[in-house]
Amino acid sequence: MKSYRIIFYSLLVVLGLSSCNLGDDGPNFHFTALQITSAELPESFNLNETYEVKVTYVRPDGCTFFEGFDLGKEDVTVRNVVAVGSVRTDQTCTTAVEEEEATFLFVVLFDEPYTFRFWQGNENGTDEYFEVEVPVN
Description:
Elements: H1 2-19, E1 29-34, E2 36-40, E3 50-59, E4 64-75, E5 78-88, E6 98-107, E7 114-123, E8 126-134
Parallel strand pairs: 5-7
Antiparallel strand pairs: 1-5, 2-3, 3-6, 4-5, 7-8
């Protein structure tokens, strides 16, 4: 009797899997950089302390969602900050442009001034940034 149950359940699993579409229809999203319009940083940092940095970015439509930040280290104390979004490609979207805010934590590890370069967009094939320099006490 046990072997019949095993065969029965195995058959159910095989039939269940064969009725599912396991094919790859391709991705239904892609990642994109979001324009940063402003950032709030303290006037100065203290060594070995953690700070919250508030960033305002543009959400260009209803299919684009904020995913996080990419903080690229260009030099010892130079950081390129890009807001990363995901764009759904399988639905109809609103075209409303919205500004939203998000934060990230930053730990000060060096006693030299930090330069943050916030990504504003791409003009004529060139990435555009605005820079904020924060001295370290």
